[in-house]
Each structure stands twice: as structure tokens, then as C-alpha cells.
Automatic annotation (TrEMBL):
GO terms for molecular function: DNA binding. The keyword DNA-binding applies. This is Winged helix DNA-binding domain-containing protein. It holds the Pfam family AlkZ-like.
């Protein structure tokens, strides 16, 4: 006897998103650690995104709480992981993220650094190791330091390399920036509290604990664990979605999925999705909700195939040329516009879709006021600028 494949429609996916991503007001969290766990990982390439993404989902938004988790309690850990992107993850997930993706990326980063230094400043691996040893010793002595302070102690860090010479995008890159990036990828140093406020990416550095020393599971086991966590937060979704989100090979992705006991389901567009065995039933609809999410928000960047929550016609307005999404306005599990902050601090937004009518507009207005209230005097400029954000902010 044949059994039909379970079907999960778009409405069910959006209902799951509103609840599991803590966007419906009744589902908001008390602590940023809960937000990171719900979303698996918070994008951290843009320092402001971690705070904006967390506070959008907190019942009482407070960037000081995010700073506590990152810099005081270390319950959130920044690491270079999925898709060679910087993420902030819960401390319990850090060994899993490191073993499943981070270690391989760190190895590639180190190989790239060795080649870059050999070509750019003539260093061999022995010279690099000596400079690293001095850098780590200087950091240990200081306890915390900026890159500039470390170059005072280790003059070799001041050397620089011209990249893409003769090109319009030619740039001079300091050895310190590449070297510290690799040490951070290996867990030997950690990004500490930044200079300036929570929007700053000018970090102080502190000694770190190598992920190799943590009780990390083997790589295959870690990939299965990460896939299970991701499906619980983002499922139903496709193998291609997970492959894109992690940056794994197709073979590794399929093996990880097989270890989760995920069930094949049919999505509304006819494609085959995957869901955990306990996630096949109807999803209760949350109350109507609106959200203003930041550039590179984990929800907006959670899937490769986005048509079920993003009109393809809106992509040119909301993404930059490299595929980075800007600030977005959401209504009941669908992106309906974008927002920006003007130089005077005003939060402005524009709807690209009429979904929700007056109810949606009123809810978005309330969310904009909520955002402005906790952001206060802080000014936010996304690291990656998108056409609509530039237009709304008035800052080209």
C-alpha cells in the first residue's frame, strides 16, 4: 500500500517562522541567549546586526543584555563558521559549529594567510609562527588590546600588503588584520568589547580558548547535530537550503540530513522539502505580527529559496549586488518592505507590497516606534548598503 508524502503549505511555513523565530509578540524571549538558540546562529559580520536581531525578538529590548552575553558571561560566542561568515552562537553550540564547519574554514584561512604573506612580505611559516607567538604573548600580558596596541608591542604586525594592485579596488591591508582574523578563526584569540558603542566593529582582542581543546564531537556527528538544530528552526526546507546555509558539500549535506531521520514533505511549489518527524502536523497561527529586522538578519538569510516569503520583484530593492539583504519590514511571515534610519535618528520605512492593508501599516508603525525607543541616540548604517536603505536614509 502506498503512502502519500506529507504536505506542508506556505501558510504553515510562515506560521512556524513567526513562532520559532520569536517574531510574534507573544513569542518574544527574555534573554539574547534564547534568541541565538532559537535561530541557531546570529549573523555577526555587521556588529550592529547581532544587537538589532536579538532586540527585535526580546520582550524588553536592551543592547546591554547582548553585550553581557558576548563580553561578560561569554554565553554567546563569535566564530567564523557557516559559509565563512562570522556568527554569534550559544556557547553550547560553539563546539558543534566549530567541528562541523569552523575547523575546515580555519584551516583554509591559515593556508591562505601563509600564501598571502609569502607573496606579499616574504614571510615563511617559521617567521609567521614567531610573530604569532609574540602577538599572543603581548595579548596575554595586556589582557585586552586593540590591533593598534598590539602593533606597538609587535612591530612586525605593522607590515602591509597591497592587494589587487592597479585595480579600482586596490587596497592596502595590514598584516595585523589578516593574522588576527586567522587566530580568531582558530579560537586562539577572541573579539572582545569594541571601542565605541555596540555598532562598532573596532574590537578589542582578548585571549581565547582553541576550539580544538573543547569537547567537540567528530565532524560528521557535528554536522548531523547542526542539521537537526537547523531543521528544528528553519524546517521544512530543502537540501539545497541547508547546503547553502552551511556551505557544506552536497555529499556532506545529504549525509547529515540522513542522520537526522528527517522526513520528506511536499512544499507548495511542488519541491521536496525536509522536516523532522515531530514537525509534520499543522502549525498553529500566531497572532498577527510585524517586525523590522536588520540587514543580514538570520531569518531573512535563512533559506536559499525565498519566494515563499519574499516577492522576487522586491529583490533589487532589498539586496546589494553581492547578495546581502538590507533592513526588512515583515508582516505575518512575509517581507513587505524595507526600513532605514535617517541621520536625525528617525526610523523610516516603505511598503513594497499592500499585504495586510491598514492593519499591517499600523503594526509596522508601532514596531518602528518600538525600535526608535530602544535605539535612542545611536545611529545605524548597515555595513552592506542596499538601494532602498540608501534611498530611505538619505545617505548615499
Amino acid at each position: 500500500m502506498s503512502h502519500s508524502r506529507p504536505r506542508i503549505d506556505t501558510a504553515g511555513r510562515r506560521a512556524r517562522l513567526g513562532r520559532r523565530h520569536l517574531l510574534a509578540p507573544a513569542c518574544r524571549a527574555a534573554r539574547p541567549e534564547e534568541v541565538a538558540d532559537a535561530l541557531v546562529a546570529l549573523h555577526a559580520t555587521d556588529a550592529a546586526t547581532v544587537h538589532l536581531a536579538a532586540c527585535a525578538r526580546l520582550a524588553v529590548p536592551d543592547p546591554a543584555e547582548v553585550e553581557r552575553a558576548l563580553y561578560d558571561d561569554h554565553t554567546l560566542v563569535r566564530l567564523l563558521a557557516m559559509r565563512r561568515t562570522l556568527f554569534a552562537v550559544g556557547a553550547d553550540l560553539a563546539p558543534v559549529a566549530s567541528s562541523s564547519t569552523g575547523r575546515a574554514i580555519a584551516a583554509k584561512e591559515r593556508a591562505g594567510l601563509v600564501g598571502w604573506l609569502a607573496k606579499g612580505v616574504g614571510w615563511d611559516e617559521r617567521r609567521l609562527a614567531a610573530v604569532e607567538e609574540k602577538t599572543l604573548a603581548a595579548l596575554a600580558a595586556r589582557g585586552t588590546a586593540t590591533a593598534a596596541e598590539l602593533t606597538e608591542d609587535v612591530p612586525a604586525l605593522r607590515e602591509s600588503v597591497v592587494v589587487s594592485p592597479g585595480k579600482p579596488y586596490e587596497a592596502t591591508v595590514a598584516v595585523s588584520s589578516r593574522l588576527l582574523r586567522v587566530l580568531a578563526a582558530e579560537g586562539r584569540v577572541r573579539r572582545g568589547r569594541p571601542r565605541g558603542g555596540w555598532t562598532s566593529s573596532s574590537f578589542r582582542w582578548t585571549p581565547g580558548t582553541a576550539f580544538a581543546e573543547l569537547a567537540a564531537p567528530p565532524a560528521a556527528e557535528a554536522r548531523a547535530a547542526l542539521a537537526r538544530r537547523w531543521l528544528a528552526a528553519y524546517g521544512p526546507a530543502t537540501v539545497e537550503d541547508l547546503k547553502w546555509w552551511t556551505g557544506w558539500t552536497l555529499t556532506d549535506t545529504r549525509r547529515a540530513v540522513a542522520a537526522t531521520d528527517a522526513v520528506e514533505v511536499t512544499l507548495d511549489d511542488g519541491t521536496t522539502g525536509l522536516a523532522l518527524p515531530d514537525d509534520l502536523g499543522p502549525a498553529p497561527e500566531p497572532e498577527p505580527w510585524a517586525a523590522l529586522l536588520p540587514a543580514l538578519d538570520p531569518t531573512a538569510m535563512g533559506w536559499k529559496a525565498r519566494d515563499w516569503y519574499l516577492d522576487p520583484d522586491h529583490v533589487p530593492h532589498l539586496f546589494d549586488r553581492s547578495g546581502n539583504i538590507g533592513p526588512t519590514v515583515w508582516w505575518n511571515g512575509r517581507i513587505i518592505g524595507g526600513w532605514a534610519q535617517r541621520p536625525d535618528g528617525e526610523i523610516v520605512w516603505r511598503l513594497l507590497s499592500g499585504d495586510g492593508g491598514g492593519e499591517a501599516a499600523a503594526a509596522v508603525t508601532a514596531e518602528a516606534e518600538r525600535l526608535a525607543a530602544w535605539v535612542g541616540p545611536v545611529r545605524i548604517t548597515p555595513r552592506f548598503r542596499t538601494p532602498l536603505e540608501r534611498e530611505l536614509s538619505g545617505r548615499r
